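Re-run with default settings, no changes from the original entry. Doing this only to confirm the output is reproducible before filing.
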Amino acid sequence: MAILSNVVSVGQPVLVWLILLIVFIVVELATLGLATIWFAGGALIAALAAMLGTPVYVQVILFVLVSCVLLVFTRPIAVKYFNKDRIKTNAESLVGMQAIVVSEIDNLQGTGRVTVNGVEWMGRSMDKSKLIAVGAVVIIRAIDGVKLIVEERKEG
């Protein structure tokens, strides 16, 4: 009878950790953002510790430690390989391309337009004090909202 009561008392934390494990996995599968998989690993280790009858505070400490270790040491590697074949969005793909100034770029007045791939965008100079004349060829260095941050192409 003592063994049965021990199994029942140990089973409850195990069940809680297994439910958390399933929740973390489902959230990860739904988002595919490498957001909760680390906590699923921590919940798995905590569930194993609960099966061995360790105190709840030890299970919680194991959950936190394992989750943090997985997050800190494996996330950078996983992100590198997970996002390896990621296709840039339309806007992201513009960085590094050339554009033509169709309206003088003046950051002080907040004016300027450029065209790239037949589409007109607001343009701003990387060098805040520099005016860029109509017809100049510029390189897109960044995107800030709906503005392309550009730098005049150097001849040579």
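The first strand starts at residue 98 and ends at 106. The longest helix spans residues 2-31.
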